[in-house]
Design goal:
single chain; 434 residues; alpha/beta; Rossmann fold; Alpha-Beta Plaits; 4 domains; seven-stranded mixed β-sheet; four-stranded parallel β-sheet; 18 strands; globular
């Protein structure tokens, strides 16, 4: 491996110290350690360090869950799972030093089958009754509330938690609490998976990428005269600029008709100059001036044919959004864009469920996919026509029509109204039920 893999270690301080000690003997990794205390800090800290890491390793499921839902990044993310071996130490301490019966304990994070297996392997005739298991994002406050209520009702005498801040909050409330720390074996297993993923991604960076660039030659011509020679001159100047850009991305340029070009390169190079497919290449790289404004579709594929096909689809989506926009279609048919804009959405191939809704409502699958992506981005199921219009880059009237159609089919309902101006019409807030 030519360079070290930069791991962003994210979690509580004590968990990070354990992970650092385990990773130290592995020369292929270098660590960027970031600790947090409150759930609200997670996304801001991830954004602060995103340029410094290649992959993320979280100490547990809660920060990982927040990152998967709210952190917009293609960087691979992993967490150290809570395993039976990480639980034994806490149980031994409870049994030997505190003498608390296991049936008076509450647990969190572990999968029910794994917790059951721990006691079975220890030949302890006991089945845990109180377990807060979660798969997706969950707040620390909810975990604390679960343990505290059981203790307050007298059902438990202590809590066993995988979360440092949960343990701290419970101790402050007077609840005896014991922490389960990441096990060395679980960290090593996760590192092996991360190494394999990194190698796969390097192979992925060599995938073929095609940029399909389109510009309007006629908009540059004088309104007083029209000569075909002028049109040729514009085409020649644009070709020269694109040839220079093509060299910088180690690609090859191909004309695809008047005002349209294709540039063949690799995914890794485009990923770098577009900042992980979020922005447009800098002016000094692209060498395009304001009057050279172009519309661009980027396609990624396993073959040149697939990449070119995806580039064409991306160009159509860019045109549909607005002239001079950039969109990208990946090899899994996921669509992202518009690149370089503060508001971007990512949506994929429609599920059978969305196709069914499309048939039911007459709304296109693309519209429904975009709506679903927007709701996921804002982290809410409620939206107004005004906000929907901004995200989709459509008129407020078109946005209202989409919401009205959904409402008429029982897929949306008005749940509130907001008045921004005393004399204006209140905006309806719709809850979407896709």
């Amino acid at each position: 491996m030519s360079r070290k893999i930069r791991l962003g270690l994210f979690g509580a301080e004590d968990s990070i110290e354990i992970m650092e000690s385990v990773i130290l003997p592995f020369p292929e990794f270098s660590c960027v350690s970031i600790s947090y205390w409150r759930d609200e800090e997670i996304i801001d800290k991830l954004n602060e360090y995103r340029e410094d890491v290649d992959m993320w390793l979280f100490s547990g499921q809660i920060p990982y869950g927040y990152a998967k839902k709210w952190f917009e990044s293609d960087q691979p993310m992993f967490y150290v799972p809570s395993t039976g071996s990480s639980l034994y130490r806490a149980l031994l301490h409870i049994a030997c030093q505190r003498n608390i019966p296991f049936d008076r304990l509450s647990f969190d994070t572990f999968h029910p089958s794994e917790l059951k297996q721990v006691f079975t392997e220890s030949e302890i005739d006991f089945q845990p009754k109180y377990l807060k298991h979660y798969e997706e994002e969950i707040s620390t406050e909810e975990v604390v509330h679960y343990h505290y209520q059981l203790w307050k009702e007298g059902k438990t005498l202590a809590a066993v938690t995988c979360l440092k801040n949960a343990q701290h909050a419970l101790l402050q409330k007077g609840v005896p609490s014991f922490r389960v720390l990441p096990a060395h074996s679980a960290i090593i297993s996760t590192l092996a998976l991360m190494r394999q993923t990194y190698e796969t991604l390097h192979f992925k960076d060599s995938q073929i990428a095609v940029q399909m660039i389109e510009f309007d030659s006629f908009s540059r011509l004088s309104k007083d005269t029209f000569l075909t020679d002028d049109l040729h001159k514009i085409e020649i100047k644009m070709t020269e600029k694109l040839l220079d850009y093509t060299k910088k991305v180690n690609g090859s340029l191909k004309s695809a008709g008047p005002g349209r070009y294709m540039i063949f390169t690799t995914r890794g190079l485009l990923k770098e100059i577009t900042k992980d497919f979020t922005g447009i290449p800098d002016q000094d790289i692209l060498r395009l001036a304001g009057e050279d404004a172009v519309t661009c579709g980027i396609g990624i594929g396993q073959t040149a044919y697939e990449a070119e096909s995806n580039a064409g689809i991306a160009l159509l989506h860019a045109r549909d959004y607005r002239a001079e926009s950039w969109m990208v279609v990946f090899d899994d048919k996921t669509i992202r864009g518009p690149l370089g804009q503060p508001i971007q959405i990512q949506y994929g191939a429609a599920s059978e469920h969305l196709q069914s809704i499309s048939t039911q409502t007459s709304l296109s699958v693309a519209t429904l996919s975009k709506l679903q992506a927007i709701l996921r981005k804002i982290g809410d199921k409620e939206i107004s026509a005004h906000d929907l219009a901004q995200y989709m880059n459509v008129t407020p009237r078109s946005a209202r029509r989409i919401l009205t159609v959904l409402e008429g089919n029982g897929l949306a309902e008005v749940v509130a109204e907001e008045t921004l101006h005393p004399r204006g019409r209140p905006r309806r807030i719709y809850q979407i039920k896709l």
